[in-house]
Amino acid sequence: MSYNLHIINKHFTALMIIVFVCAVAQSFGQDTLAGNYPLLSIKSGNHVIKSVVTVKGRLDIEAGAKIELIEPGIIVCEGAVNIKGELNNKIEIFGKSNMEGVGIVIKDLDSNMNSTIDIKYVTFKNLQLPLFFDFGWKRAGVNISDNYFINNIGKVSIIQVLNPPFNFNIDSSYIDFKLKNNVFTGNNAALYFEDLKSDHVNYEISNNTIVGNNVYGFKNYNISTNVLYGRVDQLFSRFNPKIENNSFAFNYLVDYITDTVVHLANFGVYGTDKTIDFKNNYLGSTNKATIQKSIYDQTLNYNAPKVEFEPFLSTPSENNPSHVYEINNLDNIYLEDTIIIKDPLKGLVLKSNTSLNFSKAKFGYTYFKDDSSLKIVDTTVTYDVQPNGNNTKLTITKNVNTAKKIGYYNIGDIIDPRGGYVPEVKAGYIAYLNDLRRRKFIAEFLKDKKKEDSLKTPPPPADSIKNQFQKIEAPLKSRLEFGLYSGLAIFNGTISQSSLISNDKNLFNGLNINYTIFSNLSVSMTIASFKLSNSDENSNNNEQQARGMSFSTSMLGVSTSINYDFVDNRLYTKARRIRPSIGVGLDVNSFSPSGIYNGVEYKLQPLGTGGQLIDSTKKAYSSLALGYFFNFKIKYQINRFNSIGLHMSIHKSLSDYLDDVGPDLYPSIDKIINSKVENKDAAIYFSNPGSRSVVGQYRNSPNNAKDGYINFGIFYSRRLFK
Amino acid sequence: MKLKNTILLMMLFSSIIITIGCSKTVPKTPLEFQKELLSGTGAYLNTQRTWQLDSFYVDGANSPLTTLQKEYKKTFSYDGMYNDEPDKNTGIWEISTLGKLKVTKIYATNVNDSSVFDIVSINAARLKLNKKLLDGKLGTYSFKISN
Hey, is A223 helix, strand or coil? Predict the structure, then answer.
């Protein structure tokens, strides 16, 4: 409980800030882009793209721009592209969660032969296909450097480069295509180059950090299920691709169906050529056999070219974007990626290509709560950091008791020496995914079994009172439940308007006691205190505005109701935590409408504003009113004793005077003056605040509505006894 | 739904309820209220009030009204305009201090004639004004509402 309170305290301010920020963002609005542009320059700030934006000419995006792509948002570029952020002021192009936009498409031949594609210091995040060079595209050069491609959800490609046009073959010019110093991490797809060897595209893919990506496919490892793949043909192969100094680590093929890791998946190649150079890259290991497992080439398919990956780097280059490439335990023994972590580790040693800053790092440990369910526990690990050059020792200072269930460690928010993003580090994640799959399988099996069993059991007899309302064998006190209610009360009657939300809203508080009679039937009693008020000034009806009446009354009510509970009261299962109920009841309310005249509040009933006190045959209305109501509750059972929920009740009063305005004729001023009413000035005013000529009219015209009110809000209830 | 989220949601609801439920409306000041009694609130069909002369006293002694005087009416509009019948004077009115009614008649010759009345009493049906007459005596005008 105290932990929960701590969580609430911790996040409540943040939640309020988020609500406020959202409101501000909503009110200021964002720049929404759509349609065709001859040229487009996107300034620093927030922008939204929800449809196809086509740029016929040059596209410029300034540093600091944040562009949200919402499905089917896409930017199609037919000319030069200049997206250049700054080291400390990057450009962000990102997809909206659960409605991820596509990305940027480069297409067609630009009429300006010198136009280039320059993309630098940009973060592409949460997109379907961040960069797509469509078939038949052509520009003078491409330079994609120092960018981050993080957590892109599309399962087709992160970057897909198709070939320039066929008639381009007669042309001796070529495209210099540079992909350098980028980070690719947490993505679900590969980098695909249609022809890595080409007469017209000279590829240089160097110093990239390609770590922690999951390429989605099926169980069979093939060419396209690698994080980098393409074709290498003997024909039309003027330029050999330069693929050097890249760092590949923790890249896997993940099975679509089971969401489990199948295979290491670094590089795949096909085509008619015999070999391709893939030298001087770091390939996730120093063991040649392990490296070979992460490459799809002639070793697995005789028709494919052989990948010449030796010599390979034993550690990644320091010039690559910072990342962790190896995880060891405190004894400096290499932790296999398939390690099963059941007992918490004492710490980790992380090997990286540069020094790293762990000052803001979040070190988490997630493990299963029991043997077979899907329940997990997320914990934050406390740890000491001992940097030693490019090795960092993280010693866990406080271990949690996991009951020897499978879990994994996750370290995020690490920062590189320039303050940039460093890919997350995970240990034991493969085993965790395998166990998660096993548990999902068990859950599905149990669900199917339950369905099967329910088919076998004879159909229940037709509903009857006897079946619906079964006796409860429990002592009286354990059937009692006490509740605190709070919310808003809205008056709905003569002085109100048809649009409920436009009426005054006042605080409502109540105490409730509920007694369970049968399995699905309970009775309850509520004592409530609230205020009702409203004014004709709020009305959008001219006649009502002209009437000019207003009132305010404190209400004290006692209500009893009988409720039908949709969930059997005898059951407490976590599967049925949400418990709706409906009911009807009667209430008795004490009320006393008042109004303000010249700064002084007057009780209206003793003034006889409807002429009740000018005629000896009449008398003042009663300040006690009977009524009836209909209620609806939805309860969330926190545990066997405590629950919280939402409530709403619609009340109708049998008195027309909750607002002091009933079906009475407007009284004559002279008669009020001659009556025994004490505050005649106030009585005259409240009887006809608009001082209109209303001879023969009823005070409750024009709407002649019956008085009532609506209460709604939240409640907390608790059973006090077992 | 996790317990943490449920509780956060309930706390958010509570905050909204308290914010909405505890908002107060500011009552009108006596000055504003006096103006409204005199001239209406500005709401539909409540943009002006006409007061008909009912009786007139000089130094407390009743001065019977002639038939023509009994038809005398002053109309005050909520936007500050003034006119009277049957003289058909027009002008402006203002109450800048509680209980002091200043009426400025504007004649066709652009000559302004201001008079300040003391509001002895006003309610939704009756208006009583005092004014020093030219001979130094105190004139008390009593009006009744005539909408």
Answer: helix
pLDDT digits over A384-401, tens only? 999 988 999 999 988 776
Q: Which of B21, B34, B124 sits opposite A688 (nearest CB)?
A: B124
| A539 CB burial (10 A radius; 0-12, 13-18, 19+) | buried
CA distance B61 to chain A (A): 23
- How far is Cα A328 from Cα A312, in angstroms, rounded to an integer? 21
Residue whose C-alpha is closest to residue A310's, from A335, A336, A285, A273: A285
Residue contact A507–B11, C-beta within 8 A: no
Query: How far apart, in whole angstroms, are the C-alpha atoms of residue A84 and residue A89?
Result: 10
Residue position matching structure tokens 């008669």: A671
Contacts 24+ apart (CB under 8 A), A335-341: A335/A427, A335/A428, A337/A250, A337/A429, A337/A430, A338/A430, A338/A431, A339/A427, A339/A428, A339/A431, A340/A406, A340/A428, A340/A431, A341/A406, A341/A407, A341/A408, A341/A409, A341/A427, A341/A428, A341/A431, A341/A432
Question: What's the CA gap between A213 and A191, in Å, rounded?
Answer: 11
Rounded to 5°, the CA angle A620-A625-A628 comes to 150
Residues A100, A188: Cα–Cα separation, whole Å = 14
Q: Cα separation of A489 and A506, whole Å?
A: 5
Contact assessment for residue B129 and residue B123, using Cβ atoms and an 8 Å cutoff: no
Residue pair A410/A366 in contact (Cβ under 8 Å)? The answer is yes
Spell out which residues of chain B touch residue A685, defining contact as CB-CB under 8 Å: 37, 123-124
Q: Which two tokens stand for residue A76?
A: 């199609």
Per-10-residue mean pLDDT of chain A, 722 residues long, equals: 47 52 46 89 92 92 94 92 93 92 90 86 95 91 95 92 75 88 94 91 94 88 91 86 94 86 90 92 92 91 91 93 92 86 88 92 88 85 90 86 82 90 92 88 85 67 56 76 93 87 90 90 94 88 86 94 88 80 96 91 91 84 94 90 92 93 89 87 90 84 83 91 76
Strands A521-535 and A550-565: antiparallel
DSSP secondary structure string for all residues of A396-420: EEE----TT--EEEEEE--B-TTS-
What are the chain B neighbours of A487 within 8 Å (beta carbons)? Answer: 17, 21
Phi-psi group of A258: left, alpha or beta (phi > 0 → left; psi -120 to 50 → alpha; rest → beta): alpha
State both tokens at A519.
């399995």
Mutation test of the interface with chain B: which of A9, A714, A717, choosing the one with the most B Cβ atoms within 10 A? A714
- Of the pLDDT bands very low, low, confident and very high (cuts 50, 70, 90), residue B131 is very high
Q: Is the ipTM of this complex over 0.85?
A: no
Residue A543: phi and psi, rounded to 5, are: -60, -40
Asked if residues B86 and B71 have their Cβ atoms less than 8 Å apart, the reply is yes
Note whether A152 and A128 are within 8 A (CB): yes
- Give the separation between CA A106 and CA B138, rounded to whole angstroms: 93
Quote the minimal CA–CA distance from B33 to chain A in Å: 6
pLDDT of residue A169: 55
Listed in order, strand segments (DSSP E) in A196-353 are: 201-206, 209-211, 214-217, 228-231, 242-244, 247-249, 252-255, 261-264, 267-270, 275-277, 295-296, 306-308, 324-329, 347-352
d(CA A445, CA A451): 10
- Cα separations in angstroms, A539 against A387, A553, A560, A596, A665: 70, 19, 33, 19, 22
Q: Which of B22, B33, B41 sits opposite A507 (nearest CB)?
A: B22
Q: What angle do CA A146, A147, A150 make, to 5 degrees?
A: 140
Contact between A721 and A481 under an 8 Å Cβ cutoff? The reply is no
Q: What is the model's pLDDT at position A144?
A: 95
- Compute the distance between CA of residue A644 and CA of residue A275 in angstroms, rounded to an integer: 68
